[in-house]
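# step 3/5: fold
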Amino acid sequence: MKARILALVLCSSFATVTQAEGVGVYINGGTTGFGLGLTGAMSENVTGRLGFDTWKRSITKSDSNGNYNVDLKLRNVAALLDWYPFGGVFRTSVGLVANGNKATLTATPTGGSYTFSGATYQASDVGSYSGELKFNSTAPYLGIGWGNPVAKAKTWGFVSDIGVLFQGSPKISSTVTCGAAIVGTQQCTDLKNSVATSTAQLETDTKNYKYWPVISFGLSYHF
């Protein structure tokens, strides 16, 4: 909600300065994915920025908790204020990001068996498994950068950002069903307990991802 409000404020500011200062657009790529954005001058040393980045990647994770296929999806909508303290290309940036970063987990058997929290189960004993990793839906951003897409007497230019997205520690949810042969047995209960323990351990193992590093480079155009 906060990100949406800030975005509306920035859009309103863009509308009032477009004719006087023009607007700039940019494309970029980096640790938040590939995206595009819109920049408008709010004063001589302050600009407002709206950006969208997205990216997908599949990876495999293997440890004592088991083997997982991880489908990582990055998706962010950022509403930022850029301040150029020296009137040049260097800037400091602050704002809010509508954070859609998440990952879906799928357990995979190894040698015909699954491992959850160090306990091994035959593939036939596991009906299904699904898990999801999410972060805070709204995340503050703080960073620095270079390049001013709306600099006077400038058409094309380069832009870059270095900062941190404070997205909070990940929250992991998981669901497992027992195979038909062990439904209603102690082994089924043990399986669910092992998955719960594994999920808690995964949250601990990924807690440092609450700070997402942002490094991006791009090309801008000033209308």
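# step 4/5: annotate
The first strand starts at residue 23 and ends at 30.
# step 5/5: archive (pending)
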